Amino acid sequence: MKIPDKNISTGIASTRKNPVKLLALSGLTLAMGLSTSGPSLAQVDGVLIPADQAAAAVADSSWEVSRFSWGDPNLEGTFTSRDMSSIPMQRPVEYGNRANLTVDEFQQRVAGGAGGLAAMRGGEEFEGEARLQLSALDSAEVGTRTFGYTSYIIEPTNGRLPALTEEGQQRQASFSRGQANGPFFTTEDFSYYDRCITRGVTGSILPSLYGDAMRIVQSPTEVAISYEMLHDTRIIPLDHGRLEDPAIKQYMGASIGHFEGDTLVVETRNLTDKLSVARMPHSEDAVLTERFTRIDPEMINYSVTVEDPRTFVSPWTFRLTLTTQPDYEVLEYNCHEGNFFVANALRAEQNYQRMATQALANGEPVPARNVSDGGVQIYQAPASEDTVDINSAQ
Description:
By secondary structure, the protein is α+β, with helices and mostly antiparallel strands. It has a domain at 340-380. The protein has nine helices and 18 strands. The chain has helices at residues 51-54, 56-59, 103-111, 117-122, 128-135, 139-142, 166-174, 200-203, 341-361; strands at 2-4, 15-17, 21-26, 29-33, 41-44, 47-49, 77-80, 153-155, 213-218, 222-227, 233-237, 254-260, 263-269, 276-277, 280-281, 287-296, 299-307, 316-323.
């Protein structure tokens, strides 16, 4: 097994033989361990190395992905993006064109710096109810590995989003992200996520608070990808045939896949302009090119190239390394049954309108939205007396 030496630009460089030791991560404490599965961080000569540098395809040049009897690489399994939670979408400018942290920077991330795994476990990036929810999650929901990437975006080389066109700027300004401060008058004031419809192709796998998993199943003629939240399944035919009529627009678009060596390449067109990619709204002309490459029995490199000249002045690409988590299962996501956000937001909006009307009648300033002392906070709206718990026995 070959493990690279340290280098200031990547944290890792040339090769030398050295056994990989493992550190088990438990809570906020790092302790020596020998397991090759489950929560682990690789170490070389007492120095922790990023999970991406410990991947089988990186650590052993002779490693090969397993294949099905019909010859395609095996990508099957349940994978999440939880281990990418410590990484920003856009690269902080101080890193320049560096795609990887230095050794010292990586140690800081592991120790619990801003966005670090330890910080995630302590809930330091969240407040209020979100922090309470996070504290109740198990390791599978907060991640078990730490990567050394400086950003999700890898193209352009500076790791920053390309400039928006004039149309893209207008779209960004008017795009409804939902779960904001209102006003909430109609269903159009809520996002498709709020309404339990979809999170889109990329939103379905990017890290959020929980439920960021996909299950991949393959056959000789199709690949099926099921997302945990919000219950979407994509059936991707493996051929070079024509896509559906361009006039047919879908939330998840129309996809066709093929293999290039060990990599599954999926091209998606026919998207609507109602959703976003990596939280950036796009036009109906957007084309997404996804690439799935297994680099380890427990890791898949996943990249998405976005081409949308109506929105961005140039194409751009972001990358995640998807990983397995101990005992993780993709369960049925009953979104509507537990979705209280829409009802709470509408009730809070009614309450706010009453307060604003009363303030105007009294010649007082209209109160600010989303303040905790008056019941305007949309997540803490006062319960209605006739509220019915749909999960209670009738």
